[in-house]
Amino acid sequence: MCMDFKALCLGAPILRALTDMGYTQPSPIQKEAIPLALEGRDVLGCAQTGTGKTAAFALPILRRLSEEPVPHPRRIRALVLTPTRELALQIGENFQAYGQYLPLKSLVIFGGVSQKPQVEGLAKGVDILVATPGRLNDLIGQGYIKLDQVEIFVLDEADRMLDMGFIHDVNRVIAKLPKSRQTLFFSATMPESIQALCDRILTNPVRVAVTPVSSPVEVIRQSLYFVDKPNKRRLLIHLLNQWQVSSALVFTFTKHGADRVAKELNKAGIPAKAIHGDKGQNTRQNALRAFKEGEIRVLVATDIAARGIDISELPYVFNYDLPNIPETYVHRIGRTGRAGAGGTAVSFCCFMERDSLAQIEKLIGQKIPVVEEHPYPMEVFEVQKKPLPPQKEGQKQQAKPKKRGYPGKKRS
Ligand code: AMP
Description:
This protein is α/β, with parallel strands linked by helices. The chain has helices at about 5, 10-20, 30-40, 55-65, 85-100, 115-125, 135-140, 160-165, 165-175, 190-200, 230-240, 255-265, 280-290, 305, 325-335, 355-365; strands at about 45, 80, 105-110, 130, 150-155, 180-185, 205-210, 220-225, 250, 270-275, 300, 315-320, 345-350. The protein is built from 16 helices and 13 strands. The chain has a seven-stranded parallel β-sheet with strand order 3-4-2-5-6-1-7, with helices on both faces.
């Protein structure tokens, strides 16, 4: 065990668990956030998944709770609110692992499954509860959960939480918490809506950021292809084949676009599925499973659909359409390059998307390197009023006169 973790004063049982897990030194967010959280300060952590942010809040929670005798009966003294079931399960596993030599009990609750085992778990007594907002409110409403003894509250992935429309659920939870508590707040991006939420629920917080706000992780190789809209699908197929990509997440602007790209890829012999808001939860989960198990090579997603599920550590992310909210670019490419493993984020930009590109480059503070040499260079340098002529004789029209999918239109 490296001196670094010892210097964080986490106590022998936690250090032993970290040694078991092979952690040798704290990540930058852990080095910064853990001492502050142990002091009892409110922390505003600007960090993406993959930076080690879970341990940055889980370790001080375990340490602080284990410094007091376990109350009988146990009561929920720490609450972690996170947007998705997958994240909740991951966080729960981390608490189990880091706390394996401590007498503390943690429980994970989320929707979409029977509440019975969760209610039974609660009845046995819990020190740390990890929850998604909907199920938590349900069980509070039914009288199974009380939050009036919570000492430490974590709001994880706050920006995703808001994007997924959970703000009312989050507010209902916050209203049930004691006013006097410690709050640890984590968000990958800091748009105004998130800043407003911070102002409301944090008290004199210390801000901790691992990378400059919204700057993409450095290990991600970013590249940009200028290409006309009708040629995007051809370029995508070309790159997937040329690089023999076995696993990629492709982002489109619209639901319709996601369906169309998946169809084109399948036609070209590249197994793909689309996920978006119109697909049921089961269909989405099936697509995700097929993707994770390698049955399909490509998952085509809209932003909202992709945020509801846990997919990360991908070798490739393609921005088939550029997002018109620049922070979304950071979110998307954050799906790749996890844990320093490197990753490639490829963006396609047609003439209509140049404003989005400018905004993205302003936000990330750099120009995305342009790949000039490719088979489908941009040929259209004006706003298209009419459909483009087909590329080859007999080929189906791709460009539609409607500006569907372009910045400024409603996204799925
Ligand atoms: P997170 O950002 O919390 O999702 O963590 C990303 C991954 O890094 C997880 O698989 C953690 O188990 C792992 N991790 C977190 N902290 C460390 C550390 N200090 N040393 C090695 N691995 C870590």
